[in-house]
Design goal:
The chain contains 18 helices and 29 strands. With about 550 residues, it is α+β, with helices and mostly antiparallel strands. It folds into six domains: about 120 residues, no CATH class; about 80 residues, no CATH class; about 70 residues; about 90 residues, no CATH class; about 80 residues, no CATH class; about 80 residues, no CATH class. Strand 4 and strand 5 form a beta hairpin. Helix 1 packs antiparallel against helix 2 and helix 7 packs antiparallel against helix 8.
């Protein structure tokens, strides 16, 4: 039995005197475990008939001397000693406590003892564990605890698990847990009995190959997180599982493989996305000049830039289609395109959409002009039956279903008839595929004149498109003929509707940030006859925050 316990000066080791012999152990979990086992083995056992018993009190003293050489000071410490003693004795094949007295033992040695019980057959348990099935939810083998405990209970006590006493059950559980732990299994508390589980080994090489094949097929497009997880599991384990949790080693493989192929290692909105394209320093510096130098093509939808020309001009030819799309829709490139009057989304054009028709047979992705104004001198309108008039200009608010600007030219009788049909009676009219309905002239202003040839020229303009007539508290319209990056009346009309000190030289900053904040919107898809139209919201607080942010960042200044 342990006679004394001494800790070294540096605290790394401790020494026990067991039956007069000195033993030194490392001051860690394994060292303490071995010291406890050595101390328990040194206790003199008692033989009663054919049974061997270990004194419980001396067992507690051994464990207490190792764990608390300075003495037990708290109830929690005492409970720890009891629990460790229970496990250590079970490991050595001793069961729960029983009371022995005369005539089994002398009166002076009466008390609690632990009976030595035949150990659970480790080979039998390992064989049973190896036959465990694979979970459909997680990449692991699992087996119900009762399967193992029943087998061990029958072998040791000749009885079913449910028929064993609590002490016998504790003895079986402790030994099974020890044997399972040595083979890499651990108990998971689940339900009334729990299960023993062991993670499946990860085939890292196969997992990497499976992920690389997936990324090659996607060719630079975003990849669903669920697809990445499934392919990683198929490579690592030969099959997929319902759970989306990955073992740490497999998650590391996923992150490394994604980064090696130009993807972000962190998912966004349920998918892994390629890293943004980084422009060369020279392209970043001369971005506007490089884009402005590209020769536009003519399509039936208006002027456009070929996407491949934009990518070549910026020196980033070896990128995926998705990355090219992000290059156009996000960041400085999209800002520069807007400054040049182009959209920030892509459009597919077939060869017959180009003027002249392209000789090849491949569709092309193009960036259309944002404002695509037609100037068709033959464009006509006929709201009065049989009487048509020319319409040199027509801009529609397709959201509010009203007219922003309309010009009618023709014989006086025809113009008057169409005008009356347009503004009278609150009727619904269809101009092409656009629905409009005017409430008389309440929201519009009429300008009329007679041309030298005798024809009438009537113009209808929405009051909110007129600097003179506009109500500063309501959204206003800007007419755009497509010749300038910013409509000329943007600054004067915004300055009129906001009680903020604005300077004309801020127009570019306000225009860009107003569009970013959805304060400025293009109507009717940017199309129009003679003019396109924009709608601007007079949201005072939002515009104020735009101005404040610009002043703080020194993007604008007084």
């Amino acid at each position: 039995m342990i006679e004394s316990a001494t800790r070294s000066a540096d605290g790394k080791t401790f020494t026990l005197s067991i039956k007069g012999e000195t033993h030194t152990y490392s001051h860690d979990k394994e060292g303490k475990r071995q010291a406890i086992l050595d101390g328990l083995n040194a206790i003199e056992t008692v033989i009663v008939g054919q049974d061997v018993y270990l004194p419980s009190n001396e067992s507690l003293q051994v464990v207490a001397a190792v764990l608390y050489p300075d003495g037990i000071q708290t109830e929690a410490a005492y409970q720890t000693v009891c629990q460790v003693t229970e496990k250590a004795c079970a490991h050595m094949g001793y069961g729960g406590e029983v009371e022995l007295g005369p005539p089994a033992v002398p009166f002076a040695r009466r008390g609690a003892y632990r009976q030595q019980i035949p150990p659970v057959d480790a080979r039998m348990m390992r064989d049973e564990l190896e036959m465990a099935g694979t979970s459909s939810t997680h990449p692991r083998q699992e087996i119900a605890g009762t399967i193992l405990w029943n087998k061990a209970g029958l072998a040791v006590y000749g009885n079913h698990w449910s028929k064993l006493t609590p002490a016998q059950q504790a003895h079986i559980q402790t030994q099974v847990e020890e044997i399972a732990g040595q083979s890499g299994w651990h108990k998971e508390e689940r339900g009334a009995t729990g299960s023993y589980i062991r993670p499946l080994p990860v085939n890292g090489v196969a997992a990497r190959h499976q992920l690389m094949d997936l990324l090659r097929r996607e060719n630079g497009r975003p990849v669903l997180v669920s697809s990445v997880i499934y392919q990683a599991q198929v490579g690592a384990y030969g099959r997929g599982f319902y759970s989306n949790e990955l073992a740490p080693v497999l998650q590391t493989i996923v992150s490394e493989t994604l980064q090696a192929h130009g993807y972000r290692p962190t998912p966004q909105d349920g998918e892994y996305r390629p890293l943004p394209v980084t422009l060369a320093a020279e392209a970043e510096t001369n971005l506007l000049e490089k884009l402005a130098a590209i020769s536009p093509v003519i399509t039936e939808f208006g002027q456009a830039l070929l996407l491949r020309d934009v990518v070549d001009a910026l020196g980033v030819a070896s990128i995926s289609e998705w990355q090219a799309e992000q290059l156009v829709t996000d960041g400085r490139v999209s800002q520069a395109l807007r400054q040049l009057g182009y959209q920030t989304e892509l459009t597919w054009c077939q060869p017959y959409h180009f003027q002249p028709k392209r000789a090849d047979h491949d569709a092309q992705r193009v960036i259309l002009k944002e404002v695509r104004v037609k100037n068709d001198p033959t464009s006509k309108l006929s709201l009065a039956q049989g009487l048509a008039v020319l319409t040199p200009a027509l801009a529609i608010d397709d959201v509010g279903e009203t007219l922003v600007y309309l010009e009618m030219v023709g014989a006086k009788q025809s113009v008057k008839a169409n005008w009356a049909a347009l503004v009278g009676g609150g009727k619904v009219h269809w101009l092409g595929r656009k629905r409009i309905q005017l409430d008389g002239m309440k929201s519009h202003v009429k300008i009329q004149s007679t041309l030298p040839c005798g024809w009438a020229n009537h113009i209808l303009i929405h009051k909110q498109a007129s600097l003179k007539e506009m109500n500063p508290e309501e959204p206003f319209y800007l007419l755009d003929d497509g010749t300038q990056p910013i409509p000329p009346l943007f600054y004067p009309m915004l300055n009129k509707c906001l009680a903020l000190p604005l300077l004309p030289e801020w127009a570019g900053y306000l225009w860009e940030n107003g569009r970013t904040r959805k304060l400025i919107g293009l109507l009717d898809g940017g199309e129009g006859q003679g003019y396109a139209a924009w709608r601007v919201l007079p949201a005072h607080e939002v515009w104020q925050s735009v101005v404040q942010a610009g002043l703080q960042s020194e993007a604008i200044a007084f």
